[in-house]
Amino acid sequence: MSRPITKKGEVIDAALALFMRKGIKATTTRDIALRAGISEGTIYRHFSSKESLAESIFAENLDYFAKFLKGYLLHTKEPLEMLQAYIAGFFEFSRIEQRRYSFIIAAHQTELKKLSRGNMKPMQTLTKILRLGQKQGVFRKMDTKLAGAMVMGVIMQTIFYLKTGRIPVNYDAVTAEVLKTCVRMVEK
Amino acid sequence: MSRPITKKGEVIDAALALFMRKGIKATTTRDIALRAGISEGTIYRHFSSKESLAESIFAENLDYFAKFLKGYLLHTKEPLEMLQAYIAGFFEFSRIEQRRYSFIIAAHQTELKKLSRGNMKPMQTLTKILRLGQKQGVFRKMDTKLAGAMVMGVIMQTIFYLKTGRIPVNYDAVTAEVLKTCVRMVEK
DNA sequence: CTCGCGTGTAAGTAATCACTCACTTATCAA
DNA sequence: TTGATAAGTGAGTGATTACTTACACGCGAG
After folding, report:
1. Contact B153/A158, CB-based, under 8 Å?
2. What is the rounded distance in angstroms from the CA atom of residue A90 to the CA atom of residue A129?
């Protein structure tokens, strides 16, 4: 009970906004303090280091993303439909939460060294779908981790090219083509 | 004529070795000078900045990679075989030139901001193969840039997972599976 | 009331880093 | 021999940055 009497929330909000816009490395503790309207020292009352602050925020947002994806899987138990829903959710998230998506990807790929090894929830969700499909005989047999990596590669690279303007930016058309292609990759 | 009387070569060699091992950002000009056995000032006799040094080295190595790939395409003009040779070459390069591969990818994806926009030669090579296949009616019709992005995603993400030990490290088996999958993606 | 503790702050601090500059040395053409 | 020029040097330099520290404040328990 009792509403927060600390500035921890302000620290997190400011840091997230800046991490999303400029990346973790390019965001200084000074930036964060300025934006939060506090002093730098305050950050260290609540987090032991800038990195642990970033880790904490990353974990929160990865969770948010994972839940978003799961929302897309509620209405079906058919592996094929689940795969399609998963991909559609991924694209949708990257479209309506552009900055958050970029932050998650950057943090996961390069900016954070610790954390998330083998922990990447969205990947686990995908692997589960693939395993289920294989068990039901809808998908062809292959290493599910490899299949997951390949599907993930198609999705992420396509989004990357969309974002950097290297392919025509039409989310619907592109999503449809990616959907079709991924089904070809895994079906029997 | 005249063998080099400057230390430019030493600068490049030292920088490449360090960039490959630690990345561009983590390599300091001091590191480079130490390894090359020269003083920091010398670097600036030959390059206007650390970034321009990195760009120069990146361009050289991207070229090297592109030529390596082209070597795999010499013995066929069948789009399907060319695609397979391209992928096999990509995997082979990532295996026997691990550090160089990592350097190229990291530099391209995150470390260098300028350069290489729309310039990524290996991608252009892939796009050409896909366009040829479509013209000959071997591949299905679709935006070749999108198709290229998807195939590239499969390749790169798989290599990434191989390198980080998230899928069984058996280059031959994995390459074979990726080959098969990519063919499924694009064939009619 | 008061003591202690959690919170906040301003002003550091030490380290790092890319880059510069005044000066020296080597090369070679005239 | 000379003198112009390119190459090399290494001790700075200024800017930046994550993090620390000494102190102030206010609230709630006893």
Report:
1. yes
2. 14
Res A118: pLDDT: 59
pTM surpassing 0.85?
yes
Considering only alpha carbons, which residue of chain A is nearest residue B188? A184
A113-132 CB burial, b ≥16 within 10 A, e <16:
eebbeeebebbebbbbbbbb
**A154–B153 C-beta distance less than 8 A:** yes
Of B23, B93, B141, B158, nearest to A147 (Cα)?
A: B158
What is chain A's mean pLDDT, rounded?
93
Q: Which of B117, B146, B161 sits opposite A177 (nearest CB)?
A: B146
Residue pLDDT, tens place only, B113-127: 666 556 689 999 999
Decide: helix, strand or coil at residue B139.
Answer: strand
Domain containing residue B98 = 51-186
For the beta carbon of residue A157, count every other beta carbon within 10 angstroms.
21
- A87 and A155 in a single domain? The answer is yes
Specify the number of domains making up chain A.
2
- Let me know whether B11 and B65 are in one domain: no
A30 and A91: one domain?
A: no
Q: Do B177 and A153 touch (CB under 8 A)?
A: no
Query: Above pLDDT 70, what percent of chain A?
Result: 94
Q: How far is A149 from chain B (nearest CA, A)?
A: 6
What's the distance, CA A17 to chain centroid?
16
Which candidate from B25, B145, B158 shows the least CB-CB separation from A153? Answer: B158
With left for phi above 0 and alpha for psi between -120 and 50, is residue A118 left, alpha or beta?
A: left
Do B72 and B116 lie in one domain? The reply is yes
Exposed e or buried b per residue across A87-100, where buried means at least 16 C-beta atoms within 10 angstroms of its C-beta: bbbbbebbbebeeb
- Residue A2, chain B, CB below 8 Å: the answer is no
